[in-house]
Design goal:
Elements lengths: L4 E6 L9 H14 L4 E6 L16 E4 L6 H9 L3 E4 L2 H14 L4 E5 L4 H13 L5 H4 L2 H12 L2 E4 L2 H11 L6 E3 L19 E4 L5 H21 L5 E4 L5 H4 L8 E3 L6 H7 L2 E4 L9 H8 L4 E3 L1 H4 L10 E3 L3 H13 L1 H19 L1 H17 L1 H7 L1 H26 L1
Parallel strand pairs: 1-2, 1-4, 2-3, 4-5, 5-6, 6-7, 8-9, 8-11, 9-10, 11-12, 12-13
């Protein structure tokens, strides 16, 4: 029997040590590799400084270019059985070409997080107004939802977003697959007495992280330091802008340290994770990793969205910065409270983020839909309409750009 082939098209080469998005991509590739798929990873990105070591993975890596007809010949020769886009932008760039050259390929789009939800929440915070339908229904929303409809399946990482897309946007359940970021409890982590300091970690190309550090610097950390004058907060994150670097003030116990040498190690050695996220979407990798390493966390409803279980959390969830600071101090100074929070995190990992039950459900649905792919596609009338018009309009625009680039 011929080996099935999967083509992964990424906006960037996977960077698992920079963000949860990179970890997510590798988990999806491993999911298909375990089923015997031959995997090709492609991207038009140029920077590979912090991407995975290609030699360490049994995948084929292939640079591609946007608006380049060479991609058509290449993908036609490859003839993948499955094409996985790592976010809606890559589907916009390459989806029509894939469908033209490989019409029978099963198309998957990994939403990672809902970009339009995150952007709308950011605007609401910036304008200091409630989140509204008018903020949500942006150009980004129309582009992202259209990309969702054009694909056979959309992978959704957050339980909240899985329900929200169906209830608020009437997106068909048949095209949605809930597949969270996986996380397992680490068997050996430092105990309370062996740990010290607070930690925050997050990629600074992601605006919610920059805003969260600003809240820590301006509001929350001074409240904590008044009660714990010797406490230290270590801020880690890839691609820190000048604004973040200028916040580095060791005399105030506020350390901006850039990329973490080993993210899980710095989380494991901290007593408490602080994540005052005011906007965002999807699953927060930092908070999942905190559960894995037995590190209690204090975060917001946005931070814990799609992750807690009816309020069960490995710490405290609050939007009140006074309560936030008090919770951080309590977890830092009371071993019994800290240990209870740690056990809550382990319970959440087992209930919601263990890989085995989710992968079993995924493959069960997969076999059913693959066996009747034509029926599945016929039911997606909106997707057929969008694919027809996108193929016409995007194809001619891209061909025009290709010709222009030749001159």
């Amino acid at each position: 029997m011929e080996t099935p082939r999967l083509l992964f098209i990424g906006l960037v080469w996977p960077e698992p040590h920079s963000s949860a998005a990179g970890t997510r991509s590798l988990q999806l590739l491993a999911l298909f590799a375990a089923k015997g798929y031959a995997i090709t990873v492609a991207s038009a990105a140029h920077n590979r400084d912090f991407s995975i070591d290609w030699a360490a993975y049994p995948y084929t890596f292939h640079p591609i270019a946007v608006n380049d007809t060479a991609f058509d010949d290449w993908v036609q020769a490859l003839q993948p059985d499955v094409v996985l886009f790592d976010r809606f932008v890559t589907e916009e760039q390459f989806g029509w070409r894939v469908r033209e050259q490989c019409p029978q390929a099963f198309t998957l789009l990994d939403s990672q997080d809902l970009h339009f939800l995150r952007a709308a929440r950011q605007q609401a915070v910036k304008k200091q107004v409630p989140l509204s339908r008018s903020l949500l229904l942006s150009d980004t929303a129309k582009r992202e939802l259209a990309a969702f409809y054009r694909c056979d399946w959309v992978l959704v990482i957050s339980a909240f977003e899985y329900e929200w897309l169906q209830n608020e946007w009437q997106f068909p359940a048949a095209q949605l697959v809930y597949l969270p970021l996986f996380g397992e409890k680490r068997t050996s982590v430092p105990d309370f007495a062996s740990r010290t300091d607070f930690v925050f970690i997050g990629n600074f190309m992601h605006d919610p992280n920059t805003d969260a550090v600003q809240q820590l610097k301006d509001v929350i950390w001074p409240k904590i330091r008044r009660q714990l004058p010797q406490a230290q907060l270590h801020i880690y994150g890839a691609y820190p802008p000048e604004r973040i670097q200028q916040m580095h003030q060791p005399k105030q116990g506020f350390h901006c340290l850039g990329r973490a040498p080993e993210a899980l190690a710095v989380i494991a050695n901290a007593k408490v994770m602080l994540a005052p996220l005011r906007f965002g979407a999807g699953i927060k990798g930092k908070l999942l990793e905190a559960m894995q390493m037995g590190t209690p966390s204090v975060t917001t409803p946005i931070g814990a969205e799609g992750m807690h279980d009816n309020g069960l959390w490995n710490g405290v969830i609050t939007e009140d910065w006074d309560v936030f600071a008090e919770a951080a101090v309590t977890l830092y100074t009371q071993p019994t409270t800290w240990a209870t929070a740690q056990q809550n995190g382990y319970a959440l990992l087992q209930q919601q983020f263990s890989a085995a039950p989710h992968t079993a459900t995924f493959w069960s649905r997969w076999e059913s839909v693959k066996a009747q792919l034509d029926v599945h596609r016929e039911a997606n009338v909106v997707g057929q309409l969008l694919n027809h018009h996108t193929l016409q309009s995007t194809r001619y625009l891209s061909k025009w750009i290709s010709e222009k680039n030749k001159t």
